[in-house]
Amino acid sequence: MANSRFVNINSYCLVEYIYTDSVIQEDCNLYLVDNGLTNSQQIFNSNSDIDITNNIQDYSVIPYGNNRYAVLDEENDIISYNSKLKKSSIIQAITLYDTVRFHFISGIDLTAFTGLILSVKNLENNEKFNTFCSIFVNSLNYGDLIKYNTTPIFLSESKYDRYIEVRIPSIKKMNNSYYSVSPQDPNYLDILKTKLASKITLIDVTNIDGNFVGFINNAPITFSIDECSSEFYLKSEDTTYLMYNIENHKEASLPQINEYESFSCYISEATDGNYFKYYASYNGGFPGEFITSLTNGTDKWTIIHQLNVYEFTQHGGSEMTSSLTTYQDIGFDEEQLFRPVLKHSGIDVSFTIDYMVRLLNENNGEQIIRTGSIMSYNVNSYGKNTVGIKMLSTPNAHRVYNKVFKSNISQSDLFIEPEFNNSMKYTSTSSSSKNVVIERLVRFPLYIDYNKISISDKILSSESITDDRIIYKQGDLRIVIKPFDTYLKFKIYQESNGTLATSTLDPMNIYRIVFITDSNNGKIVYESDTTDSTIRPYDGDLIFNIPEIDILKILSSNSRDFYITSYNYSTLRESIVYSGFWYKQTEIDEYNKYISDIKVEYGITDSNNKTMDALIASDSEKTNNIPSDVYIPGYTEQSSNGSEISSVLKTKPKQT
């Protein structure tokens, strides 16, 4: 679930601010403009960063005084025309970015406006406004900027089905970094000078080593929308610059931090019947105490639940077939129950339920909004008519045994293995001429290569981790690929206040492992297994099952790179979470040398150094040898040493 908040700017525009939505690894060229015409500053990216932030120069405008804005055309740059506009370049390699979405109400024709200007601003310590984006939208670039939401937002009897999205540097994360430097540090100014907040708030933007002021800590973030009434041209000797007059200005604000971050929503399919459970949540539990803490003498809070059902048919079509809105002003510590009725259950492949919960202050209209979604393939259980199948007997679990047939010459205890003697039933009759059947339980191992990785690009420690396993920083992980079916498990960590903590993976995203190859269009891609109950994405866990046929394609490739990516269906964007490198089994000596070198770099003592074989033999997490009662691994509950058993293939049918 995205950590976001919503606010209405006007009757047709709803802003969603997603806090620290992504880590951008690429070098982004950030331009800073000091605007002497309006005593403000502004940042935007170069046009080459369009696929990364969408906040580029050719989509931007700059205030020109007297309710006028000038278009920032890179080829026809008004900044070079007016000496009161000073521009510099800032290159920031890895930055935490927040995402801003301007949602628009269904049915509105944005191309009917002369132009719209969508802006995000924050105050510097000298009380100058710094504009983080100022996107201009008109009929010419509307098609490039607008995105259609396949699961629209329904809010206050309104439907928002399209949006414009930009990414801006995280204001709160910049402030946290800026204010973490102690004034008592002897290198205080030199350290502070390296901070992104310092580079963006330079007093003289033409001097990157000059003075800076930083942003006001915890000042609200301001969002605005300006409607343009007319356009005109500012003419110089050799060119003309496109300008716009502003007619209507509306704005709203949100805090730098989401103080309601622990407020969320929960929806799941019941295990004891054909229905769904849903409720608002706070800190993983019911929100009763939280709502009580918000309530004072005048405030009255109500929870509004909204459920939208979308059906997906085998013909590739999709349709929202039902919607339910309920109000809850008492009993906040109770589950809500819902049973959808699918209109097209006979041809449906799957269906989703989009869940929105709103915590509404009835006195002032303040709203806290959270969204979630669940997909189910159990379409036959939710049709207009359901048919039960009566079974003649209670279903029983089955075990698979090897049957060993022995002739009468070997029917004495002398010829029966000792381990059979104590645990298996057999017949010992020397006079019988029949074969004796000895049944023995067969177990099969399942090996999982387990690695811990950090999306941070620097070595950090984790106070919560007690074992000596290496947590590989961004790009440092090396794995060994063997020519068999392969299971790769990862635990992902991220930086939190200078240390490592497990990363909470967004359940709305699809996580993939990607190997670059010389064939198959250059990629082999597998999604993380979501059926394994031992894998906890909310605790940073991912597991991938790669069959032997694709492993052989990977081994035959000249490229050694692999990536873990995150794909968001609502934005249709795929971003890199982690990248690494792989070795062949025949290159084990190179792998061992790399492990030895990386331990030295990470400061791990020689006493903890192990070769790959030693790591496999000694670390139960690195290689899980999992017994199973059946041919398909993963059905038994515990291994012989009591460790947790993987259920990677638990959904496959048992073989008898």
Structural account:
This protein is mainly beta and 656 residues long. It folds into four domains: 4-254, no CATH class; 263-382, Immunoglobulin-like (Sandwich), CATH 2.60.40; 401-441, no CATH class; 449-618, no CATH class. Helix content is 10%, strand content 41%. The protein contains nine helices and 33 strands. The protein has a nine-stranded mixed sheet. The radius of gyration is 31 Å and the shape is globular. Residues 408-433 and 607-656 have low confidence and may be disordered.
Keywords:
656 residues, mainly beta, Immunoglobulin-like, 4 domains, nine-stranded mixed β-sheet, five-stranded antiparallel β-sheet, 9 helices, 10% helix, 41% strand, disordered C terminus
Helices and strands in order:
Blueprint: E1 4-8, E2 13-24, E3 28-35, E4 40-45, E5 61-63, E6 68-71, E7 85-92, E8 95-105, E9 116-123, E10 129-137, H1 142-145, E11 146-155, E12 158-169, H2 171-179, H3 188-193, H4 196-200, E13 221-235, E14 240-254, E15 263-269, E16 276-282, H5 288-294, E17 301-313, E18 318-328, E19 336-338, E20 348-361, E21 367-376, E22 401-406, H6 418-423, E23 436-441, E24 449-454, E25 471-472, E26 478-481, E27 486-496, E28 499-502, E29 509-516, E30 523-527, E31 541-546, H7 548-555, E32 561-568, E33 573-584, H8 588-602, H9 612-618
